[in-house]
Amino acid sequence: MSPRSVSGTETTGWYGHFGGSFVPETLVPALDELEQGWRAQRADSGFREELDRLGRTYAGRPTPIYLAEGLAPGRRLYLKREDLCHTGAHKINNALGQVLLARELGKRRIVAETGAGQHGVAVATVCARFGMESVVYMGAEDIRRQRRNVERMRLLGADVRPAEFGTRTLKEAISEAIRDWIANVATTHYLLGSCVGPHPYPEIVREFQAVIGLEARAQIVEEEGRAPDVVVACVGGGSNAIGLFAGFLDDPEVRLVGVEAAGAASLGEGRPGVLHGARSFVLADEEGQILETHSVSAGLDYPGVGPEHAFLRETGRVEYVRATDGEALDAFHLLAQREGILPALEPAHAVARALDLEEDLVLVGLSGRGDKDLEVVLSR
Amino acid sequence: MKRLAIYLMAGPEAPDLAAAAVAGGADLVEIGFPFSDPLADGPVIRRAVERALARGMRTRACLECLAEVRARVGDVPLVPMTYAALLEGYGYERFAADARAAGATGLIVADLPVHANPEVRRVQLVAPTTPTERIRSAGGRTDGWLYLVSVTGTTGPRQELSPQLPPLVKRARTVTDVPLFVGFGISTAEQVARTAALADGVVVGSRAIEVAERSGPEGLRRFVAELREAIDRPAVVPAG
Known about the structure:
By secondary structure, chain A is α/β, with parallel strands linked by helices. Chain A is built from 14 helices and 14 strands.
């Protein structure tokens, strides 16, 4: 199944008044080059076939949907099992797409950020596979709480560099990756892992993740003969959610719910502002300064969100709700005990809210597996 | 005459420091309005940003600081430099208007590309990566002078003057008549002199902030005076 345009907002870089490109002039030519390369490759059937083949034979697509009868007895709650992807999360979908794009652009050095480490592992993996140099910035605080993923990245050959400024989490890792890109733009592709950042990143990442929703829609229709009543996904930057929702945005009867971490709810408690090259909802004070966030899950611990989510919030197409650290941890244990699945703490937020829903037919994005979170869970 | 611009961070010491910079021979003062996530800045300015924010230097406090600086520097051009997030929070046109009312003679926004927000008149930046046609466009839109970023990278001192600078100046001269100021990566008297031989003005930021922190207004005055002397000395180093 090829990634394809699904929401019709992909050509301008603006989602309503969200999005755009707020970057130092140094990066503008690189973003233009990326956009042209992306347009050319997206239209190229050879590129799409190669990506589909890698998805199938390397990443393990399609991932199944699984009816979680133990978790939600008497209801029809399905999990979209992105945790079964190679490297353990949906991040590999985008990493594979962008590494092919980088190869076509002639870039042999990849720079990336990571929060929980899942995107960093996916980047280190695809760079190993395609013989590219990889540099991954990670907040010093996240390096501490996601030790295992740091070791994985280093085994795969990545140069993991700590971001020691400010919050020492994902926000600083993105800033450091962008600064590296500014300094090395001629040789380097910035492999951004979420649907944030300047145009064309939100569109590129959404399109490479749309495979989740397109697969899931076909699978649930096959099983149930209809689309689900409601689709639920966790939202940090929002890449797995935008990918899953992409399959259902054109189904007006399907309710879409995004779940943010209560301590990092950009859409729930933020305001329009500019962060990392785009206008979106951000957790900021009224003068535009970015605020600190907190989440037990490093992947949701981010004060911004993709501009398309901001647009979908404003139009009302998607509802955005919150789950606390405690609720996510409870959902983690429940899924472990009732289903034998250790979820990442990020999608555990989505599972927590999905259990409250009244609807009969529910689809939840299980974006990654929880091995990386064992230390955090066991310390509680 | 070649001009010397000094960048300082907004804060309680800024009026004294700006006065010292002007006494040392600065022709223009830039005042950084700190933003929490400054993508174009290297470590020195980022640390200054963290300190300024910890001391409450939000937009209104920065505008007050600007007015205090204006009161100390006569009619020397005064240019706030910041990021789009502050203008988003405050309102683009309101920010520009209030900055002028506080004594600003221009404005620099590090992350607004050339064609963004044309209603906000500002000094445009171009970089070694900027195509020549885009430099032409920036020259046509800029407010008074064009800011040439000498390096492909963030702010902060470098060992050597960027080899990308001479070709950038050459390209800019072919498409615009506005004065060209060069900044990013220029910190020593020798680099200032060599840059001034190519361009119309030189901006020194990170090193000025380091000197101001270490040695206060008098140290800054002496440092700026050294740069001034290097600029005014007849060029001994051939251009390029």
